[in-house]
Amino acid sequence: MRLLIQRVKRASVTIEGKDKRAIGQGMCVLIGVTHGDDEAKADWLADKMSGLRIFEDSDGKTNLSLNDIDGEILLVSQFSLYATYKGRRPGFSEAADPAEAERLYDYFVSKVKTLGIKKVACGEFGANMEVEIINDGPLTFIVDR
Fold first, then answer.
1. Conformation bin of residue 137: beta by default, left when phi > 0, alpha when psi is -120 to 50
2. Cβ neighbours for 79, distance < 8 A, ≥ 6 positions apart
């Protein structure tokens, strides 16, 4: 599994042009699933992500986690995090089978919801989505396992 984590002032996802889900300050996290991923990797990544100290303390140091700032999180599936390139057209053979990827994405979301985060908003697996973010910093991190 691979996470692309962005520290945001706010973020939202609009699903199929209708359903909009939004958060305030926190993280927008794109989630990719590859072959061989399992619940243990999802658990490790959820714990790692929620504990990342990427928010500023009163001294301006990135020393606080999502829970420390009472932040919110937007989770969005993103199979293209496992794109490969032999030429100019990306290939997606490294991305997990959609059924398995959806199962692990749903598992990851359910795990994150147990971590005491103020608000957890989600995209919809396999849907056409528009993601809007106001990246804070900008700070963007890639975490994989």
1. left
2. 32, 33, 92, 95, 96, 98, 101
Please name the helix (run of DSSP H) or strand (run of DSSP E) that holds residue 102, with its range, or none.
Answer: helix 98-112
Q: Which two tokens stand for residue 54?
A: 């990427």
Q: How far is CA 113 from CA 47, 75, 82, 110, 138, in A?
A: 11, 11, 25, 5, 26
- 79-134, pLDDT tens digit by residue? 999 999 999 999 999 999 999 999 999 999 999 999 999 999 999 999 999 999 99
Both tokens of residue 95? 């991305």
| pTM, rounded to two decimals | 0.95
